């Protein structure tokens, strides 16, 4: 069953060329859909459009059969809790003036405590923060620290904890490990895989790195020049009919 359906969307900036051209795909519940492509191909623009940070110029975006592309920012508010994101720079994502506990509670507070949670339970701010930190394998003591007191890997785990705090249906992961060292990358990918299985969240995992996408995803899309040029099940990666650009990425992967 699909949780998100994207149909024939286009996006351009000003009078330039289309950054996204006729992009269509579906996201299935509890699965990870990978999106791979070189820098500048439109991956992050697509993420911003799905998060409704950027409007699309044409096409449609349906969340559980509800059209989102034609809603005002105000009418989108009830749906924002269902689509959250983890981006590549955790330092930029965390307010340096806020303690970790306040950053973790921000999404819950934004939605007025209306979020119905199945895996986390709000009994107090401290207890809720402890549950979230435990979920991402961090000690509860970090709740009282500030972002500058944490390592890069710890900060990214905090942003993951914040993103899952209201148990979204969809988590958009835009290069979530690109700023981390190799050991931290592997650890965070393992964590994300475990959280998807535990929470039943659907992922869109965006990266320029085919190996990371392959490790995370059940289905893979390849983007080139703003277009989806290939889309296949993970097991079909080495099939003979792969797009020439996909074959170039495989050659680098091997």
Outline the structure in words:
Belongs to the ABC transporter superfamily. One of its GO terms (biological process) is transmembrane transport. InterPro entries: AAA+_ATPase, ABC_transp_ATP-bind, ABC_transporter-like_ATP-bd, ABC_transporter-like_CS, P-loop_NTPase. The strands form two sheets. The protein has a six-stranded mixed β-sheet, sandwiched between helices. It has a four-stranded antiparallel β-sheet with strand order 2-1-4-5, covered by helices on one side. α4 runs parallel beside α6 (152-164) and α6 (152-164) packs parallel to α7 (182-199). The protein has nine helices and ten strands. It is an alpha/beta fold and 254 residues long. The protein has two domains: 13-82 and 168-254, P-loop containing nucleotide triphosphate hydrolases (Rossmann fold, 3-Layer(aba) Sandwich); 95-167, no CATH class. The chain starts with a strand and ends with a helix.
CATH class of the largest domain: Alpha Beta
Number of domains in the coordinates? 2
Q: Please tell me what the overall shape is.
A: globular
Please name the CATH architecture of the largest domain: 3-Layer(aba) Sandwich
Uncertain spans: none
Number of helices: 9
- Number of DSSP E strands: 10
Which class of secondary structure composition applies to the elements?
alpha/beta
How much of the sequence lies in strands comes to: 15-25%
